[in-house]
Amino acid sequence: MAAILGKKIGMTSIYDENRQAVPCTVIQAGPCFVSQVKTIGVDGYDAYQLTIGERKEAKVTKPLRGHYAKSGVVPGYRMTEFKKDSMGADLEEGSPVSVDMFSVGQKVDIRGISKGKGFAGVVKRHNFGGGSRTHGQSDRLRAPGSVGGASDPSRTFKGTKMAGRMGGKTVSVRGLKVMKVIPESNLLVVKGAVPGVKNAYVQIVSSKK
Fold this sequence. Notes:
mainly beta, extended, four-stranded antiparallel beta sheet
């Protein structure tokens, strides 16, 4: 088991053993540091708190500076907790976590925040088919249609699929295959797409399935 924080660099393609081009995502995974070790006796659960990057001095508050001082870690840009059983190793505060925890061929689950698409209609947001293209309907091609009865129930039900803000949500992609591990550059190359824009931070955890 392994878990780490990373930054999405972008996409590329590499050739597999069958000489087929495989779309891949390049992630700068780590180096991360353990900023806190949480235990059942003190916190009620077991977890490791990892941090990545370096926060600007002007944005480091006094409570945050004191929190990082306990572990002797530089205040990081992003901080996330992982369960102890997902790390597969006993770590101490201040311990480094690098990408060499992963191996080629391993399956991982990656979680990130999807790209924000702004305000979108039902065809783009929910894959609606739109209205009829004939019988004189010139303005109903991308309309949602009826969203509720007039006399009964005389309202629109909560959760009805309608136009609205699209994207910008936490998304998990499971079972991505690790294609390359480059420890000297802290790079992890995984098969397929990863949620988020370029330079977005993601969580990488060994797949349990």
